[in-house]
Amino acid sequence: MIQRLIISLIHVITKTFFRRIDVVGEENIPLAGPVIFAGNHPNALMDGWLLTARCGRWPLHFMANAKLWKYKVLGRMLNATGAIPVYRREEHDGDVDNSKAFDRFFEIIEAGHCMGVFPEGVSHTESQLSKLKTGTARIALTVAARGKVKVTIIPCGLNYIHRHQFRSQVLIEFGEPIVIDDVWLARFAADERDCVRQLTEQLTESLTGVTLNAPDWSTLRFIQAARRLYKPATAKLSPGQYIELNRRFVKTYLDSGAEPEMVAFRGEVDDYQSRLEVLGLKDYHLRQKVS
To answer: What Cα–Cα distance (Å) separates residue 142 from each residue in 72, 108, 138, 145, 173?
Structure first.
């Protein structure tokens, strides 16, 4: 009863905060059986709420930083949704015991339910994915090696048009499933450490494919400005089209960023952006008629 109330509240929160939520790749999510949803983590608690509201599987349990339970109301909500507290080594000088958390994780997966994890470890505001921790891969392989269930990892890309802006837009993209099959289990049995590294690398590649990544914020700022100048004012794009257009611009820039013509173009766009900021204007102001 409480869980249903919480999920209803999460649906209301996400629908209220975002004007539009697009979901791509729902066909990649198994309708039954245990799933580990592994997502990027750019927007703190909102990331978990969006996955809960839109992944199509319930209950969805999350592993969360144990320090969140210090806040009574939040702790009660986390307990109601079945979240699992995990202690981070870097916050406790490496002296932690997460054995109970992993036991609970195994119990949930082997019961055929779903877990949500954020392999980057912490929420961040960088312009690209942080280096993934190996924990997600190790846990998936370990529970699959117990032989009770077949485990599937679904990469989840959370792409915000304006992350903290009320009534903005977001694209949730579910990538191709990574099934921990007999091949992965044979590798794990032969060399655990190398197998965990390989699976982490594959998950990194998969998450990169469903998220927008740029080398730094100045480059991303340039890309977004170029995209706005390129797109006709009359064209209405969905969040998915916005992100895909940005990805293509990023790829083109990374492939030809050192060429003199591209260097000159970036200089002109950056100068244009700076002039707008000095004048306190936005792109759309320049399209308005002046009396």
So the answer is: 33, 14, 6, 5, 27
Which residues 6+ apart lie within 8 Å of 36 measured at CB? 109, 114, 115, 116, 117, 136, 139, 140, 151, 152, 153, 154
The span from the CA of 51 to the CA of 37, in Å, is 8
Per-residue pLDDT of 189-222, as tens digits, reads 999 999 999 999 999 999 999 999 999 989 999 9
Q: How many CB atoms lie within 10 A of CB 184?
A: 21
Instruction: Choose among 281, 172, 258, 273: nearest CA to 223.
Output: 273
Q: What is the mean pLDDT of residues 42-60?
A: 92
With beta carbons less than 8 A apart as the criterion, state whether 168 and 162 touch: yes
* Distances, alpha carbon 88 to alpha carbons 132, 236, 237, in Å: 15, 44, 40
Q: Tell me the DSSP string of 81-99.
A: TT-EEE--GGGTTT----H
214 contacts 221 by C-beta, under 8 angstroms: no
Do the beta carbons of residue 47 and residue 158 sit within 8 Å? yes
Using alpha carbons, select from 198, 167, 150 the residue that is nearest to residue 34.
150
Q: How many CA atoms lie within 13 A of 222 on its CB side?
A: 22
Whole-number CA gyration radius for the chain: 21
Taking each helix axis from N to C end, the angle separating 239-256 and 217-230, rounded to the nearest 10 degrees, works out to: 120
3 state DSSP class of 148 = coil
Q: What percent of the chain has pLDDT over 90?
A: 68
**Tens digit of each residue's pLDDT (9 = 90 or more) over 121-134:** 889 888 899 999 99
Count of other CB atoms within 10 angstroms of residue 11: 14
Evaluate whether 266 touches 272 at the Cβ level (below 8 Å): no
Helix ranges (DSSP H) in 25-114:
45-54, 72-80, 99-110
